[in-house]
Amino acid sequence: MSKGSRKLVEMRGIVKVYPDGVKALDKVDFDLAEGEVHALLGENGAGKTTLMRILYGEIRPTSGMIIVRGKEARWRGPWDAIKAGIAMVYQNFRLVDALTVRENLLIYLSSLGVSRSEAESRIMSVAEDLGLSIPMEARVEDLPMGVRQRVEIVKALSGGARVLILDEPTSNLTPLEAEGLFRLIEKLKKRGVGIVYITHKLREVMSIADRVTVLRKGRVVGRSVRGDRFFSEEKLASLMVGEVLAPQRSLGEPGKDEVLRVESLTVESGEGVIRVRDVSFKVVAGEIVGVAGVAGNGQEELVEAIIGVRKPSKGSVYVNGVRVRSARDFYRAGGGFIPGDRVRALAHELSVADNAAFIYYTGSRAILMTPSRVKQLFHRLVREFGLKAMSPSTPVGRLSGGNQQKVLVGSEFLRGFRVLVAVNPTQGLDVATTAFVRDLIVKASREGVGVLLVSTDLDEVLELSHRILVMSGGRVVGELRRGEASPERVGVLMGGS
Amino acid sequence: MAASRELLLTLASILVGLAAGALVLAAGGADPLKGIYVLLTSFTYYPEILLVGASITMLTGLAFAIPLRVGFFNIGGEGQLYAGAIVSLMVSLVAPYTPFPGLLAGFTAGAILGFIAGFLRVRLGVNEVLSTIMLNWAIYWTSTYLVIDVLADPIYPHLTRQVPEAARIPWIPSSLLGPLSEVLPGGVPIIPFISIAVALAAWAAMYLTVPGLRYRFVGANEYAALSRGVNVDYVKLASMTVAGGLSGLAGALLILGYSYRVDTGLSGLAGYGFEGIGAALIGRNHPLGIIAASVFLGELAAGSERIQVEANVPAELAEVVSGAIIFVLAALSGLKYVAPRLLGVKSEG
Predict the structure, then answer these.
(1) How many helices (H) and strands (E) does chain A have?
(2) What is the band of B89 on the pLDDT scale with cuts at 50, 70, 90?
(3) Which long-range contacts (CB under 8 A, 24 or more apart) does A179-183 make?
(4) Is A366 close to B210, i.e. CB distance below 8 A?
(5) Is residue B10, in this structure, part of any structural domain at all?
(6) Contacts A–B by Cβ distance under 8 A
(7) Which among A12, A73, A3, A67 is positioned nearest to A37, based on CA atoms?
(8) What does the H/E/C string look like for B115-176?
(9) What is the β-pairing status of strands A450-454 and A23-33?
(10) What's the rounded Cα separation, in Å, for the pair A285 and B220?
(11) Residue B182 included in any domain
(12) How many domains are there within chain B?
């Protein structure tokens, strides 16, 4: 059965209000038919993932209904959704790294009540039907991301999924692996599987989607079917962003003084795998150096070594001429840090004020922390950084991702630094705040701060950097100056040569 | 966190715990209402039991709560308290001039024990529950040896010699108490005020200082603390050391400020270290909560003295009640983790 028009699922009037009052979704309708790819397009924080987590039973909607094959469904949790044939594949795969593929699949299926022999035969038939070779005995941690994703998809299908939700499926893949994924999606369509494709990448929508729903700030701002007049990159982009993007930003002139030097740095993971290989570069005052690359190519370990959290096995790092041997050295020498992972950087059950103060006092020798000064810090975050939080004592975990990022970024900027290491600094921010944070970074560089900008968002790196280093497989595989850098050239280098 | 909700939860657990105690009373054929009334109102009969019990439990409660925030279970409060008591007694005999050397020595003795357990955990990965329990026994027998062999009173061989007058912590005499002197004919010990001051200082250190903020971050998100230049191992070691010191100080206060001597079975010391765990749990690991919880437990101790006479039930009933409260508290705080999932409250990923 190809292109059936039978509806697999339908969501009507979905509203989700978080406890802190943030409206994540506002009366959203969505549906999916057999054998189609329905793209859910929007920027970070637009509500795409929230909507699909509601469909998958992970979050309860505040109001609205879900209809599966004509009947209203009420999920108590994902297990109900899985039993109804809905499965979700996350960006960060939900596999046990230390176990083999077989063990992972069997655990999943046995939790659905499938017997072992039945499970084995289902896995085999799914893999055979799709022409996939799955290394059943390999440990997940030894597999490339593309293969892990195939395992996730086989897992979902052998669990009986007819609706497959793919959350930013290409974000961890090399271009070649992404091609493989697209071919697999074509096969799934022919077999009648409905696919929700969550993405913010227009190119992928153009190449794979049959229909597209565009979300912005929790509302549906447009729908389009392949072939109609809205189905173009330009139209969809303007729907998604909602305002015209600023033209190429003008940057300041870099100075002369070297503020950050990385010398033949080699970093190993805990298991002795080399993650960063012999990387050297320097950043001068007023310069923004971008580091581009697909996530997982050594950027995280490079950053940890620079800020002094991870001991490099070879090489050294200097901030303002001071050798960094510990994180305290880094901050006391004038280093600033905006981490890429909010979950790991904030203490979620502690208050907004505590988190802000903790960042603000990084490396400080101060002893006393008076409540009035902390309150003042909070009010500056609200006033100067547009933080929205009910009170200083709200636990930071109750804030939306964007507001959490404002706490992180704002407190660090209020603290001040001469060298800034920023990792995905605008992740999860809306368009206006993204522009605001980028302005801050550029302004800081104009005032003489040297910036190392590590981002998986290529547009961000291109927009902000004087120079771009491209990382692949733990090495710097290329260096491009502003002007000679284009998405295509960086993309080619990122894929590895 | 929503402090009012925490308080409500605690009060609810106390009510449920008391109800459970009442059930036990009723099952034993006693009048449950009268029993509970006696348990809660005996401080007028035995004010010293309440005041002394509360001040000691307050410190051992802090000694359990402080390391717990950074993920350590300090079960060694008992041994640390013995060490503080015996060492302060010995110092007072050697330097019988003021209580200060004894207090300092008691704190140091406990701190050394806390440091040992902390060091073993941080550097060698030795589970601190095991090491502190083992240290408890090592200290118990060492103390028993010292009590019998070195410190024994020539006249009462089952007791140690007494802390010399000059080295004792003074009491407020009843003549200064005005109308209260009838209730407290023996005067008021000063040690509760010392303990409250220490607990308030612990609160201030945690919430009004930058190092205290870093300490709370180590407990809440170790990686965040690490990536912000906090020496996590140092913080953990320091929290175990301070905790041990506070238990040691508790022992010193007990000896220098109230009992002045120890018996061969250490019965005047036994149990305060473990009671502190209860105080920390009821007080939700918060210094101010622990002050209140210690007073409550002190009252239960006073009540259990009187309930035998008044309601004709064994004193152990008071422990059933405090046990029930802790049990209910643990169950209710478990709900805190389960309830949000049931309600579907989750932040966006």
Answers:
(1) 17, 20
(2) very high
(3) A180/A146, A180/A150, A181/A146, A181/A149, A182/A207, A182/A208
(4) yes
(5) yes
(6) 98
(7) A3
(8) HHHHHHHHHHCCCHHHHHHHHHHHHHHHHHHHHHHHCECCCCCCEECCCCHHHCCCEECHHH
(9) unpaired
(10) 35
(11) no
(12) 1
**Cβ proximity of B170 and B190 under 8 Å:** yes
Helix (H, G, I), strand (E, B) or coil at A273: coil
Nearest to B348 among A24, A357, A369 (CB): A24
d(CA A57, CA A69): 16
Q: Do B229 and A362 touch (CB under 8 A)?
A: yes
E-state strands within A200-297: 211-216, 219-225, 258-268, 274-284, 288-292
Location of structure tokens 């913010």: A200
Q: Whose CA is closest to A343, among B207, B342, B343, B220?
A: B220
Residue B94 covered by a domain: yes
Minimum-distance CB partner of B213 among A332, A337, A354 = A354
Closest B-chain CA to A412: B228
- The residue among B1, B213, B336 with the most chain A CBs within 10 A of its CB, best to mutate, is B213
- Domain with residue B11: its CATH number is 1.10.3470
Torsion over CA of B96, B99, B101 and B103, rounded to 10 degrees?
A: 140
The residue-averaged pLDDT of B306-323 equals 77
CB contact under 8 A, B347 and A371: no
Instruction: State the pLDDT confidence band at B336, using cuts at 50, 70 and 90.
Output: low
Nearest to B64 by CA among B76, B53, B52: B76
Residue whose structure tokens are 């409660």: B61
Q: Which domain holds residue B232?
A: 2-171+187-343
Q: What is the DSSP string of A433-497?
A: HHHHHHHHHHHHHHTT-EEEEE-S-HHHHHHH-SEEEEEETTEEEEEEETTT--HHHHHHHHT--
Q: Is-contact B60 B275, C-beta < 8 A?
A: yes
Q: Which among A136, A156, A463, A127 has a CA at the least distance from the CA of A292? A: A463
A260-284: per-residue pLDDT in tens?
Answer: 999 999 998 777 778 899 999 999 9
B314 within domain boundaries: yes
**Mean pLDDT over the full length of chain B:** 88
pLDDT band at B32 (very low <50, low <70, confident <90, very high): confident
